[in-house]
Amino acid sequence: MQPGDSFSGYTVTRIDRLESIDASLIQLEHRITRTRHFHIACQDKENTFSVIFRTVPEDSTGVAHILEHTVLCGSLKYQVRDPFFSMLKRSLSTFMNAFTASDWTMYPFSTQNRKDYFNLMDVYLDAVFFPRLEQTSFKQEGHRIEPVEPEGPESETQPVELEYKGVVYNEMKGAMSSPSQV
């Protein structure tokens, strides 16, 4: 294989030797979508895959982080409530996660089992390219307002208070209250 070679809609754009990890880096680009694919060929037992998207924010609403969570709440092919957590229980993976940074979102996994690798890849690719994106998932993962039921002997006469809830909301609330993150 050398730069300029083509296969499966991709063209090899670069090949480099990575001496420090005894591996080769093969960079490919899809001819139609211009999607870049980086393949690291090495003798490691771990088989790692990741889909990474540029998610440059237009504001501070956290929409990329909310979408990171929400796309993992079911997809066209895997219409269970939460295929990501189902796979955590069933898979032989050594690592599964998703991350949102300031301008990118990543969905990585690793496994030492070849069949598991392709199963996980199928779940991940269906999740990121064909997510169900249901309103209930946005409310659960992003944020919602819920009543806080008053407690105590005078609870029936107290006004109902409202509070924000949501997985990402609580994650960010925790992160922003940590002195090391501010």
Description:
This protein is an alpha+beta fold and 182 residues long. The protein has helices at residues 63-70, 83-90, 114-129, 135-141, 167-176, and strands spanning 6-7, 10-18, 23-30, 36-41, 47-54, 93-96, 99-100, 104-111, 144-148, 161-165. The N and C termini lie far apart (47 Å). A 4-stranded antiparallel beta sheet has the order 1-2-3-4, with no helix packed on it. Strands 5, 6, 7 and 8 form a 4-stranded antiparallel beta sheet that branches. Strands 9-10 form a two-stranded antiparallel sheet. The longest helix is centred in the C-terminal third of the chain and has 16 residues, at 114-129. The chain is built from 5 helices and 10 strands; from the N terminus they run E-E-E-E-E-H-H-E-E-E-H-H-E-E-H. It has 2 domains: 1-44, no CATH class; 49-147 and 162-177, Cytochrome Bc1 Complex, Chain A, domain 1 (2-Layer Sandwich). Helices cover 27% and strands 31% of the residues.
Low-confidence stretches: none
What percent of the residues sit in helical stretches (DSSP H or I)?
Answer: 25-40%
What name goes with the CATH superfamily of the largest domain?
Metalloenzyme, LuxS/M16 peptidase-like
Strand content: 25-35%
Concise summary:
The chain is an alpha+beta fold and 182 residues long. The strands form 3 sheets. The chain has a 4-stranded antiparallel beta sheet, with no helix packed on it. Strands 5, 6, 7 and 8 form a 4-stranded antiparallel beta sheet that branches. Strands 9-10 form a two-stranded antiparallel sheet.
